[in-house]
Amino acid sequence: MSGFMQGKKGIIIGIANDMSMAWGIAQSCYAQGATMAVNYGIEVLEKRVRPLAEQIKAPIVMQCGMQNDAELDALFAEVEKQFGKIDFMLHAVGFSDKKELSGLYVENTTRENFKNTMDISVYSFTDLCRRASKIANPGASFLTLTYLGGETYIPNYNVMGVAKAALDCSVKYLASDLGVKGIRVNAISAGPIKTLAASGIDDFKLMMKWNEYNSFLGRNMTMEDVSKSGMFMLSDLASGITGELLHVDCGYHAQGMVNLNHIKESGDMLHEYAGRLENKA
Predict the structure, then answer these.
(1) Residues acting as catalytic residues
(2) Which of 51, 96, 107, 270 would suit a FRET pair with 243, their CA atoms being 20 to 30 Å apart?
């Protein structure tokens, strides 16, 4: 252990299971000496989250949904009671009705799910930052997880892409607001990885293969990639970084066309995808 986060205390929001990016980041922070409070969003997740929290010796493990003000109040009151001040917070929360993540965005997006998606996936970070800033030390770091679908069109992402765009913009406004307190606010835009949230996206395996062929590094991002990057952004190693969207996707976001080293494979995949669209029509 190098101890980059020795003595640091923080909050991890959004661990769902042992494949969550939030869990990977929490592990990296723990390995560097951090102490963390952990939430589980709904009661059914407790049996998955509590054993993980025990592995990182989290002194606080509480149910806390992003739309439940009483649970949010209770979590932050307990954090303040036990920790006093915090040095970092991770927000790894997003939700939308799976049925509205395929087909045409213009046809399949309902008002109810649009509002719910924005509330859980975007406003929750603003709300958490407001609460956390009241008990944060100068130099604290707040981090959220976003995705390339907020910057450009991604098939089968629909309203979640719109939500991620709003989240990306929120990072900049929050960084401005909280910068006067010395608090940094950033986002990591990770490439596709097998998580519980990803299971709701149609043709996800195809997306993974496409990213592998067309990233600069010729591979998909790993959990280790994002966990180390997340720890870095939450630590003092990133003390001069705020308002930033850090891509951890093996360079895929900067690829302007298909990778010529895999042009045949990419062509075969496009042909396969076209066939699936014809079958759905």
Answers:
(1) 147, 157
(2) 96
